[in-house]
Design brief:
One of its GO terms (molecular function) is nucleic acid binding. By secondary structure, this protein is of the alpha/beta class. 44% of the residues lie in helices and 13% in strands. It folds into 3 domains: 14-78; 92-137; 155-197 and 205-353, Nucleotidyltransferase, domain 5, CATH 3.30.420. α1 (14-25) runs antiparallel to α2 and α6 (116-123) packs across α7 (127-137). The chain starts with 13 loop residues before the first helix and ends in a 5-residue tail after the last helix.
């Protein structure tokens, strides 16, 4: 003879059973909710509470609790109820004031931006709460990003021209990215550098003696990544024209030369134009203003600066030039081309997203 109060029958419709099975199979839902769904499914299949408790390693009281909760509230009853807690001390108006000050004002002490502590003192909100709200809203007043919009009226035409050379270079022609890295300084450290060791990095003094500068002229072959480079004492049209002659002598006579350069005045000097006009195989392609990122040779300049120049110590310009020539020589032995993948349309789309983002900043 059965003892105790009779249990109310638990019956699931097809939709409820489908939802419960989905919960038990989920890997992103909390383990507690998965266990409750399994209790309800087992109960609906007629399994006794004691057997469910033993299989899931729970108490009979826990199984009975969630069974009754489901009978009363169905699937919504399996979720945790909102627990009482300490009421908010920062209302919506103060949060709005925090946002407004962060976005539209500057500190009165002349600082360029707010910090967590300064904005906290200004709004009488704890630094912990300020940090939480700024993180939640994606506000980062301590950071900044650089940008520069080209003012070239033929930006799109020049962009498509240069990118077209990268993605689909012409036949029987050589595409070269040409530029100059001016003011390469021969800096000699006032004290010897400390070598790297276990537990500490290389040590370099902050002060130096400046022995002069040189200008690095470089032409990057887009096809194979090889670099033709030379150092010259000055950065004028005479030196640029001399470098063009070096390129002309190095390129086979049966190939056209497509030269990508920036808008520096030396590149457009009348003598340079006259020299180019006398050589029909030369074709100049100018990148838009403020778009040095479009010239692949800039990537080579970054490599040689980081690996050969910045951390060096040179007692003379001659030593600096020797180091540059040594780096270029070794670089060309195992050079690889820089793979350009961005299309002109993708670049224009990215520029459009930038303009959309900054369109409401009051510029």
């Amino acid at each position: 003879m059965s003892m105790g109060r009779p249990k109310a029958e638990l019956v699931l419709n097809e939709d409820e059973r489908s939802q419960l099975i989905s919960i038990t199979r989920s890997r992103s839902i909390s383990a507690a909710l998965v266990t409750r769904a399994r209790i309800v499914l087992a109960t609906a299949d007629g399994e006794p509470n004691s057997a469910i408790a033993q299989r899931l390693q729970l108490t009979r009281a826990t199984v009975g609790k969630w069974r009754l909760r489901f009978l009363d509230q169905r699937i919504n009853g399996l979720y945790d109820e909102v627990r009482p807690g300490k009421p908010r001390t920062i209302d919506d108006e103060r949060v709005a004031q925090l946002i407004h000050k962060t976005l539209h004002t500057k500190p009165a002490d002349g600082s360029t931006h707010w910090s967590v502590r300064t904005i906290a003192a200004e709004t009488a909100i704890s630094p912990t709460s300020v940090h939480r709200y700024l993180k939640l809203l994606g506000l980062q007043p301590h950071r900044s990003e650089s940008f520069k919009l080209s003012t070239d009226q033929f930006f799109i035409e020049k962009l498509r021209d240069v990118v077209g050379l990268y993605l689909s270079p012409p036949e029987n022609a050589l595409v070269l990215c040409v530029d100059e890295k001016s003011q390469c300084q021969a800096l000699e450290r006032t004290q010897p550098m400390l070598p790297m060791g276990f537990g500490y990095v290389e040590g370099v003094t902050h002060d130096y003696v400046r022995h002069g500068t040189t200008t690095l002229f470089a032409a990057l072959n887009v096809l194979n990544g090889a670099v033709l480079a030379t150092c010259k004492p000055r950065h004028r049209h005479q030196e640029f024209l001399s470098f063009l002659r070096e390129i002309d002598n190095a390129v086979p006579a049966n190939l056209d030369v497509h030269c990508i350069v920036d808008n520096y005045s030396a590149h457009k000097h009348p003598k340079v134009k006259a020299w180019l006009a006398a050589r029909p195989r030369w074709h100049m392609h100018f990148i838009p203003t403020y778009s040095s990122w479009l010239n692949q040779v800039e990537r080579f300049f970054a490599l040689i600066t980081g690996k050969a120049i910045r951390r060096g110590s040179f007692g003379s310009v001659k030593q600096l030039v020797k180091r540059i020539d040594q780096f270029v020589s070794h670089y060309n032995q195992n050079c690889e081309p820089f793979m350009w993948t961005a299309t002109a349309d993708s670049i224009l789309a990215k520029l459009q997203r930038l303009c959309t983002r900054i369109s409401g900043t009051g510029h």
